[in-house]
Amino acid sequence: MRYKDTSDLEISLLLEAIYRKYGYDFREYSQAHIRRRIMNRMALSGFEDIAQMQSMVLNDMPFASELLQDLSITVTEMFRDPAFYRSLREKVIPILKTYPFIKIWHAGCATGEEAYSMAILLQEEGLYERTTIYATDFNQLALNRAKEGIFSNKLIKEYTSNYQLSGGKESFSSYYTSHYDNVIMNQSLKKNIVWANHNLVTDSVFAEVHLILCRNVLIYFDQNLQNKVQTLFYNSLINGGILSLGSKESIRFTDYFEHYSELDLKQRIFKKKY
Fold this sequence. Notes:
Layout: H1 6-22, H2 31-45, H3 50-59, H4 61-71, H5 82-96, E1 102-107, H6 113-124, E2 131-137, H7 140-148, E3 150-152, H8 156-165, E4 176-179, E5 182-185, H9 187-190, E6 193-197, E7 209-214, H10 223-236, E8 237-245, E9 260-264, E10 269-272
Parallel strand pairs: 1-2, 1-7, 2-6, 7-8
Antiparallel strand pairs: 3-5, 4-5, 8-10, 9-10
Helix pairs in contact: 1-3, 3-4
Domain CheR-type methyltransferase: 1-251
Protein name: Chemotaxis protein CheR
InterPro entries: Bact_Chemotaxis_MeTrfase (IPR050903), CheR_C (IPR022642), CheR_MeTrfase (IPR000780), CheR_N (IPR022641), SAM-dependent_MTases_sf (IPR029063)
């Protein structure tokens, strides 16, 4: 591979070092995303060049953890894109109701807001008692926050609006308790969520599921890595299972386009063909 400039080569070597030392593979992430995050951390930490940062990554575990947090994606919110959740209620829930037991994989769950959103939706549709949600991420700090289910009070107005626009059937406040400046999600929402560390880039299939939600994660991967992850998803879904992606993501340019039918193209919801 030829590199446009020295910094591209240095970033490639840094990512290789992270993979070999810690097992986290960012080598096929979007170059623009990775460069932006690395340059930001370099400026904040006062390094003169990326080579200096690489030395720090290999020899200073606290700094390495800090950089890994920078490179991971933790942008999320409750009922993000309400129209998506409305489509889930109208087009996916009727399919899930045909199964006696339901397994859902929320891949790249970050700090858990969308996993709790799914738990609320399932509870309102009478499906939560027979569902297991596997909520996974490679970012252990994000997973720890997700397990706690504690979110800032400042976000609740937006979350409540999202919930209402998504077709929520209850008062959103019934799903949490306020505690000082935070809210704590009800224990009843946590009981069927299994939080687990899983890396989409390096790990394999761990469950056969009826529904996969992986929204706004693949946009950070290059085409080769997207195909690799789509293979993982395809092999994890039962025949007739549902794949839900983010609004800017698609299976159109992957190897699996012909293996799915469209349930809702606008909301990026696809059904695996039999």
